[in-house]
Amino acid sequence: MNESVLQDILRFKQIIEDKYPELDQIPAYNSLCLVSLESLRFDALISDLKGLYVEMFAIQMPKKKLWNIPVCYDLSFGLDMEEFSLDKKMAIPHIIALHTAPIYTVYCIGFLPGFMYLGGLNRSLEQPRRADPRLNIPKGSVGIGGQQTGVYPQQSPGGWNIIGNSPVPLFDPSKDNPCEISVGDGIKFYPIDMAEHQLLSIQVDANIFKLKSYQTDDSSN
Amino acid sequence: MIQVIKPGFLASIQDKGRFGYRDSGVPVSGVMDEVSAGIANTLLGNSQDAAVMEITLSGPELLFETDTFIAISGALLSPTLNDKELYNDEVYPVMAGSVLKFGKLVRGIRCYLAVLGGIKTKKVLGSRSWYLSVTGMDHLSTGMNLEIAENTVIKKNPKSAKIHYHNSSVIEVGEGPEFDLLTESHKAQLFNGIFNIAKENNRMAYQLKQQVYKHSYSILTSSTLPGTVQLTPSGRLIILMKDAQTTGGYPRILQLTKQAIALLSQKSTSDEVDFRLKQ
Predict the structure, then answer these.
(1) How far is A82 from chain B (nearest CA, A)?
(2) How many pairs of residues across A and B have Cβ atoms under 8 Å apart?
(3) Measured between CB atoms, which of A24, A29, A109 is closest to B25?
(4) Is the pTM of this model over 0.90?
(5) b/e per residue, A144-155, with b = 16+ CB within 10 A?
(6) ipTM of the predicted structure?
(7) Tens of pLDDT, residues B46-88
């Protein structure tokens, strides 16, 4: 897991998108998969892509977005929080502080529609997946699996340690762009209480909630 | 309109699939056996993108409320229209009020029902393929009403293309991105061994009963496709299918051809699979 490898992949993706808009592109930690629905001349494409890769260092990196995502760490949501706290010998408020401090990077979206693999977890919060995965993890559950953290965008089976819940929708198939967050974006969690969680849930159900994002000026690229 | 009287074991509406959303984690979905679904659509003069009903193992009972034409391809599932026997790969007119039923499963496991002009259920993210977290449903249920095209005049249908390919156990594959991780003994096991399909086989993946040697290679989560063969550390082989997740962390050792995915889609628990590397 390496941020500069990811930046390299995203830059390559951008330049391929301009030249080959018909290709589907699926970026991940250290790979970029291209899918063509039409048959094509494979060797010609490969040599052209190699050329593009060399040229691409001149291009400007697209600005990435930073998303603020509310998380309620109430124990009624955090199914594994007490066990996690005992295991880590860390008080729950301290866990929450450490979990909400970093700006996480979206390295990959997969497993489920809208499921983000986030890198940047504080090392002291790393925790192996549960030995027995749960059959039904509720929608919005926030979990830790190994070195990664993330939000289950819908109810699903899963093995991550659940510490909270976010009421905001991360995947909405009724929208043209069902998943607004992209690989490379930054994610910042902020803590909310039960009452705020309920209020936001009502706003989401009434379709008046809007996920907020900021352009970050990443001049290092 | 088609009304579902009985749903059968598992039937769903599928087209060629949902493309352009894999980077949001949305599986491609779509018909498992593109060859058979393509034949049914071709017989009716439909576009290859027209949505069909994919019927698995046991058939539904359907009431047609509109005049149309139908064609059935893929698995042999003893269909009858108003109790009259139908044949696969033929075009039949259907009058409003007719009832289509299915009977004994004779060959294959996935049967495709195409109607003139296609099934017109709602498109979500550019596709009519049912996938639970995108379309909110993934199988037929009693009382459902399925929109179909209103065409009643059939164009002169193109020459039918009957292909009887279901009997072969040979699954043609190319090398996957992590093929080079395999040792010679792994390769010998893969290409000389005989494999059988495990009971874990569905629209997401087909697992194989026999395992190959254990290994300790791992990869960072990367993209997977329908037809990708994953090798787990315990030596288990998992062939991903149309509803599979878009990423995975197991080495991707082989990749099935489109034809091989279609062929495998007609196979079921205990059926034999022989991998053959494409030259």
Answers:
(1) 29
(2) 85
(3) A109
(4) yes
(5) bbebbbbbbbbb
(6) 0.87
(7) 999 999 999 999 999 999 999 999 999 999 999 999 999 999 9
